[in-house]
DNA sequence: GCGCGGCTACTCGGATATAAACTGTCCGAGTAGCACTGG
DNA sequence: CCAGTGCTACTCGGACAGTTTATATCCGAGTAGCCGCGC
């Protein structure tokens, strides 16, 4: 087994996005607890809870404690982008971090003016990453939900029925 | 200190890109050993060697052993893109890996036809990532080198002089 | 003088430790509902 | 019957381990140059 899977985005991003969609579908029924969310996707409940916490801090979800508590959307899905979800979990830092190694050796003797302009490699990487972030920011969870419902009509009621049915 | 720096791209990518540029500048002087490359950027030599190995396997560099051995560019910088370098080191896998968690719980009872279409979240993430990869593939190392030389004219000769000068 | 053989120094390449991050689990503080009690 | 109060069950939130990945280092196989020797 030699599966290469590096530069991986935390799976928490996928979990969080799915949960946001589900929270919208279940929105009228009040908060949904971590246990129920996890059951709906076959995920470890405690870890899912840990992954959703940053979304609360980011203002995407609200959490209520107590007997009938759980998570709820803090704002409509149309105002939440994939970029918001990813930034909440993975952090705002960029994927490529230039260490300015050019200043360590060969270029150490160059005048400081040579470093006014950013490293050309860094600039190119940042530019490409910006494209990525722009595409993510242009995509709201509402549009994704719309796509999902288009692929499988009646998804909303189906989900609500599944959750209404008593779990074994 | 709580600096968030996740979803990080391996620093080997930056090292490799810089080394490719330098190998082009030094191209006429024969192979450049890991030790000299590392000295030029203040990097750990053994680890840099480890990072450059995938570039050899990817056909970007060629390595020659022996007394005056080292690394050399396998093809001109105009035929090497940032995407090539990143794919060589980080692997060809995509950053976002959809685990299809939708099939685990709520949607388990849906007919198989509902899963013919890919997960809407996965589709959106892949689309954004594709933009990123496209931008990286459009950028050759030659164009980056051109930018660097534009910012600091005479860089080529300066680098060659630094390497010609005996190290202390 | 010239060719050849052995030697040496240096190279890459992979196997081996160490540190960091991600993944997963557990328990406690706190709260909202609810039942009970007294008026 | 109704309001107040204490209790209980359930929630999130953060503190605590296990496992994979990234980082760093070291040593061996192998090669190219070079020196010395013999012809």
UniProtKB/TrEMBL annotation, chains A, B:
Transmembrane segments: none
GO molecular function: DNA-binding transcription factor activity
GO CC annotation terms, alphabetical: cytosol
Pfam families per UniProt: Rrf2
SUPFAM superfamilies found in the cross-reference section: Winged helix' DNA-binding domain
PANTHER family: TRANSCRIPTIONAL REGULATOR-RELATED (PTHR33221:SF13), WINGED HELIX-TURN-HELIX TRANSCRIPTIONAL REGULATOR, RRF2 FAMILY (PTHR33221)
Name of this chain's protein: Rrf2 family protein
Species whose genome carries this gene: Glycomyces harbinensis
